[in-house]
Specification:
Strand order of the largest sheet: 2-1-3-4
CATH class of one domain: Alpha Beta
InterPro entries: GTF2I (IPR004212)
Radius of gyration: 74 Å
CATH architecture of one domain: 2-Layer Sandwich
Order of helices and strands: HHHHEEHEE
CATH topology of one domain: Fusion Protein Consisting Of Minor Coat Protein, Glycine Rich Linker, Tola, And A His Tag, Chain: A, Domain 2
Shape: elongated
Organism: Prosthecochloris vibrioformis (Chlorobium vibrioforme)
Protein name: TonB C-terminal domain-containing protein
Distance between the termini: 107 Å
């Protein structure tokens, strides 16, 4: 690449020198042509008077017999030297932009191989003749440590079969005693039976017969229709396990609650709880999960209303 650039620059210089030489030669010729008339005008000019008369003898003497005129030569008028036009200075040629030379790649430094450092040999002192020669002591062999024997863990004591049997018997007794109804539960069952025979505690639990407008069945009122919708929602949110009920007899809960205009369930009360506390808890949770119910229509009630439902293991009445 550098050689090519140098060749191009040498060709450009040759062409420039040839053009400069031709221009100088042309200007020198023009100046020579301009100087030639100036040299011819410097020669002396002779003036001759000639008279043209016919029939007269030609003689060398002047006419009239007089003395010949002393012709005085006219003074020569030297022409003014014509100044040669000054040659106009040639415009200096603009230097052509030279391409920037590419930077030469730096030579990679040669890594010198590390020379091994010569370790000086220790100078052994010459033993003195008079000094006694000391004999080095023999090195004592290192003590060999005995490997530690693995410690075997002591076996865990076997459980006493009599203690396990005793604890199992106690658990069985507690289960048997818990499955039997207590005296309080028996009293509640008897009280529940009497209440069932006497009828519902209030008119909240008395409703008109259900029907769909068929023969012998009156149509549902707006109130009964809203209560039926509420019962369906509560039933879907109510879940209990019948196996956890100790007895199904007397398991019946009369529950009253207030429904706001916005459908919220408030003031849950058990007018007649069942004999099973577990059953009563499932009823309360079902009502809490079902809140809020649908908004109460104006044709049903324009103020919060009280609703009573009967919960049994078979369903809601």
């Amino acid at each position: 690449m550098k050689r090519r650039l140098s060749e191009e620059m040498g060709g450009e210089r040759k062409r420039f020198l040839w053009a400069l030489f031709v221009a100088l030669f042309f200007h020198a010729g023009v100046l020579a042509l301009l100087m030639m008339p100036m040299k011819r005008s410097d020669l002396p000019v002779r003036v001759v008077n000639v008279s043209l008369v016919s029939g007269l003898p030609v003689s060398d003497e002047p006419a009239g017999g007089g003395e010949p005129d002393n012709e005085q030569p006219l003074p020569l008028v030297e022409p003014e030297p014509v100044s040669a036009p000054k040659p106009e200075p040639l415009p200096e040629p603009k230097p052509e932009p030279q391409p920037e030379p590419e930077p030469e790649p730096l030579p990679e430094p040669e890594l010198e191989a590390p020379q091994p450092v010569a370790t000086p040999e220790p100078v052994q002192p010459e033993p003195k003749a008079d000094a006694p020669v000391s004999i080095p002591d023999e090195p004592t062999p290192p003590r060999q440590e005995k490997p530690e024997l693995p410690v075997t863990p002591e076996p865990a004591p076997l459980p006493d079969p009599e203690a396990g049997l005793q604890s199992a018997l106690e658990r069985l007794r507690s289960q048997v005693s818990g499955s039997q109804p207590t005296e309080l539960e028996r009293k509640l069952a008897r009280l529940q039976k009497k209440v069932n025979e006497s009828g519902p505690p209030s008119n909240l639990y008395r409703r008109s017969g259900r029907g769909s407008g068929g023969e012998g069945m009156p149509p549902l009122t707006p109130y009964d229709s809203y209560v039926s919708t509420a019962v369906g929602i509560i039933t879907r949110n109510w879940s209990f396990s019948a196996s956890l009920l100790r007895e199904t007899g007397g398991v019946e809960a009369y529950v009253a609650f207030t429904v706001g205009i916005d459908g919220s369930i408030q003031d849950i009360t058990f007018d007649r709880p069942s004999v099973s506390g577990y059953f009563n808890q499932t009823v309360t949770k079902a009502l809490e999960r079902s809140s809020p119910l649908p908004v109460v229509p104006p044709d049903v009630s324009i103020r919060p209303m009280r609703i009573g439902l009967i919960f049994t293991p078979e369903g809601i009445e």
